[in-house]
């Protein structure tokens, strides 16, 4: 039986996101992907190798989403704000928000799976560099102070997203999160 590699990775992503790496057993993957163990090993090598591919795919999809928001936005800060809003309000709904798969992996794997931990950290770094590039563009467009540090802002934005996701799990009010996102970006704008 033939399988679609991309479809299998997407299904594996959902399963790993729900159960985490440690909580996902090979039997879970077999059932969720509707694949035999031999096909999983032939297609991916191992559970760990599959998970590394899942992380890479997640990073690539995140970077593509940021690029898409950038193409549609009038300026880089708007693109970043739209990305954050889209990440928090998945399909427009606060209840669909999930902790970033990379952050989840980092928090669950530090001592038990150092290879996965390091790989997830590298993925976060790639996304952070994309944020930094957009902050640099915003600075060049004079939307940010010339004394702002785009690299620090890239790290800061990641921290803001992590905090918003965790807070949104305890906050039922969409309006509160919308105001927080607005506040995050209003503090960045260069005074006119």
From TrEMBL:
Domain of life: Bacteria
UniProt keyword list: DNA-binding, Transcription, Transcription regulation
SUPFAM superfamilies xrefs: Homeodomain-like (SSF46689), Tetracyclin repressor-like, C-terminal domain (SSF48498)
Keyword DNA-binding carried by entry: yes
Residue ranges occupied by any HTH tetR-type domain in the UniProt entry: 2-62
GO molecular function annotation: DNA binding
DNA-binding region: 25-44
Protein's name in the database: HTH tetR-type domain-containing protein
Organism: Paraglaciecola psychrophila 170
